[in-house]
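ingest -> validate -> predict -> emit
validate: passed (alphabet ok, no gaps, 609 aa)
predict: started
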Amino acid sequence: MKGRRPRRPRALPWVRVQEDTIPLLIGAEAEEEETPSARPTIWKRVRFVLLMLATFLCLLAVALAVAGYIGVQAGEQARLERRAALADEHYRRGLARLDAGEYELAIAEFEYALQLVPEHPLAKQGLAEARARLATRPTPTSQATGDVARELYEEAKAAFEQEDWPRAARLLNQLRAFAPDYERESVEEMLFTSLYNAGIAALAQDSLEEGIFYLDQAGQMRELDADALRELELARRYLRALGYWAVNWDICIQQLEALYALAPNYRDVFQRLYQARLAYGNLWAEQGEMCPAAAQYDQALRLMNSADLVQKRDDAAAICAVATPTPIAPITGTLPSGTTMVPGFTSGRLAYAVYNPQTGLYALYTVVSDGANGYVSRVAEGADQPCWRWGGGQLIYRDRLAPGIALLQPDGSRVLLRAGGDAAWPTLSPDGTRYAYAAPDGTGTWYVYIARTDGTGAPQAVAPGWAPVWGPTGMLAWTGCEVGGSACGIYVDQPDDSQPPVRLTGNANDTGLHWAPGGQALLYMSDHTGNWDLYLLGVSGGVQVLLSTPAIEGLPAWSPDGSTIAFLSYRDNFWGIYLMQPDGGNLRPLFDLGAEMPNWQNQRISWGP
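emit:
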């Protein structure tokens, strides 16, 4: 229509959006007229900003991921440590419940410890012991003692009927200690028969010390018959003679001759006497003393003729005939001086025992370091279970010849601290004024005792147990069980306070103890996995497997500087002493000990400063 303003075309929606949006992105440039050439420049800038933002976000994500991974790892390690500590705490609670007879609660504690650490080295064994005790626990009535006594009696009777004499004797001794009046006549009759037969069988199998042990107990109950008394006397004479083998040939020969005159067909006494005469003659000849050498060769020829020995006798006699006679002192043995070198033994003094198949006894050796190498000396024949005094040069050991407990002083002199063949595992207090040892009572139960080295006062019983070892802080540790065979494991105690001993493990085969230099941990061996392995036990709790291989490892000993652990091992059909770092690294042999080490679990390696 004429006179009306034409209407402005309606803008499309997308155009309005674009018009409204551009000022938000480019600010003041919205005032300028939009041209086709401006649009590409603006979007390049937008894309650049977006690209930089995306790059920053990616880098931030990577940094956060790395930090998160490190945090997760640290947190996981902390959680594992907390779980291990908590598992140890519940394990100790389980032991306390076990000692209190609260077997259900002990099982709960051990099971929770295994939930926290499924491979806890000791919780499994504690759980098995708690379940076993729960299965055999008598009902809490007035008949409880009678039930236990009846159970021991039936078990001993079954062993007796099966002619398992050592087991029957052990069970019957336990029964007599637990309930002395229970079936007294029957128990004593079976016990005497078991001890008698066990002793005779052991002597027949050449286990002379074991046979003497059983027959001595039988003889305390009633008089032995003539045959048993004769076998007992011959075994004692034989062991006494062999105790002087290579230590004092003169006494050894006297003992063998007396035994040969009494029983010329007893064991190998004839061969032994011949070999002793020959060895004594050779020893004189090595010293250039041909007259006594010829005399010994002549005595050996009266036992057994040999063309070679005749020649040796004649040669020695010829030299003797032209020699000027001079008084000579007898030669006592062949103990060598410290001339055998052990390369790489750089710290302290190591003491150990080596089995001699010829004598049937152990000999005691030491290796002393000069800072670069070690030098070996044989310090005693018929001796074992050595233990150095912490901070001193005294060596205490079991003497099988005297017999008793002997103390070797730094000047080489010896003192017999205790006479008698029943004492074992001696160990000195840090100040050297006392020593601990183990010995069986009349029922065969082993106890730990403490006595004074000056011989004053009577020994004081500490607790049932064996293999004690005194630590550098004055703590005493041993392996033991409560009377009756329960609550077995490693115990520690401060003998000078009024607090009772504390049990740290739960197996009677946790033994071979050796204190760490700081006195806060114990090395030990155990076979609860089916093989003898090495462990480290903290006095405040916690256990660690140090070495576990298919081979036998045992008798660990820590070097005084804490850098090395020595231990016994059986590998490639030979026994030997090996060294390793405390973390198990750098495992290496030190030297061989031979193919035989009977009853090696009852030996000891000791490493002192």
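The chain has a mean pLDDT of 80.
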